[in-house]
Amino acid sequence: MSADDRSRWRSPGLGQQRTLDLPSGRLVVYEAGEGPVIVFVHGLLVNANLWRKVVPRLSPDFRCVTLDLPLGSHIEPSGGDDLTPPGLAALVCDALDALELEDVTLVGNDTGGALCQIAVTTRPERVGRLVLTPCDYRDVFPPKLFKPLLALARVPGATQGVLNSLRPRAARRLPPAYGWLTKRPIEKQAEDTYVLAALAEKAVLAELNDVLAGIDTRHTNQAADRLPAFDRPALLAWASEDRFFRNGIPEALASTLPNARLEWISDSYTFVAEDQPERLAELIAGFVREPAKAAA
């Protein structure tokens, strides 16, 4: 099987694939189930497969919409002109508009959590609830260990070289790769889609470099300043052993969001959807079912 074939695999549990042509670019989404809507937003150098263990646990009772954002491991190029964090948040919001979704529970992880913060502070009209799992906040965008990637994006061929170095699976378990994002190895079929997409498609690699070049803490700080205005229910489902997004981040979010509560998830690093999918699905399901006034 070629690298291109391996990079395009998506878990069948995510549901039916659709491609949306949006004002801000092209976006692949996956839909499964019926009921109250939950929309999943992944982070940098992963894709919709991040949620492959969570969606099947929720889709019997909820409509799950999983986005495959242009964050370097996507299935096809977006073609959008604006891949800055606000532009990517607009892509999320445009998808909600195109699918005519209402009262959405928006779930974000890692970089995707930062995009969710921007989305709910710029275009909150379709979002009824917010779930943040370990993610960027204010000046932690990205964490220090990953900041060299931002500089490498400006050096021709450097990002491709980094991804090539991750072809061996052993290298992927190093801390600057996925080693401190999950406590246990990611299954190879999913992990290959994260690493190989930008190596298989030049346009995907170009968009990854554009995304990295556009990352700036002014976007997350501006969103954080506006979060007190988002008074709808919010759940912070945080890993107690997270390596990157502790140091007061979940507590700060809990005090900034006026209708929020913090729940700790044990035996997990940043990718709680990978390490503890059953517990995360349980928390999300209970949160969505709660009356709005009681959710926090």
Distance between the termini: 48 Å
Fourth-tier CATH superfamily name: Alpha/Beta hydrolase fold, catalytic domain
Helix content: 25-40%
Uncertain runs with pLDDT below 50, 5 residues or more?
none
- Categorize the overall geometry: globular
Q: At CATH's second level, what is the architecture?
A: 3-Layer(aba) Sandwich
Strand order of the largest sheet: 1-2-4-3-5-6-7-8
Counting helices, strands and paired strands, the structural category is alpha/beta
When the domains are counted, the total is: 1
The overall pLDDT average reads: 96
Number of E strands: 8
Give me the number of helical elements.
Answer: 14
Biggest pleated-sheet summary: 8 strands, mixed
What topology emerges from the helices and strands here?
Blueprint: H1 3-7, E1 16-22, E2 25-32, E3 37-41, H2 55-58, E4 63-68, H3 85-98, E5 104-110, H4 111-122, E6 127-135, H5 148-152, H6 158-165, H7 169-172, H8 175-179, H9 188-200, H10 202-214, H11 217-226, E7 234-239, H12 249-256, E8 260-265, H13 272-275, H14 277-289
Parallel strand pairs: 3-4, 3-5, 5-6, 6-7, 7-8
Antiparallel strand pairs: 1-2, 2-4
Helix pairs in contact: 3-4, 4-11, 9-10
Can you describe this structure?
- It is a single chain.
- The protein is an alpha/beta fold and 296 residues long.
- The protein is 40% helix and 18% strand.
- The chain has a single domain (3-294), classed as Alpha/Beta hydrolase fold, catalytic domain (Rossmann fold).
- The protein has 14 helices and 8 strands.
- The chain has an 8-stranded mixed beta sheet with strand order 1-2-4-3-5-6-7-8, with helices on both faces.
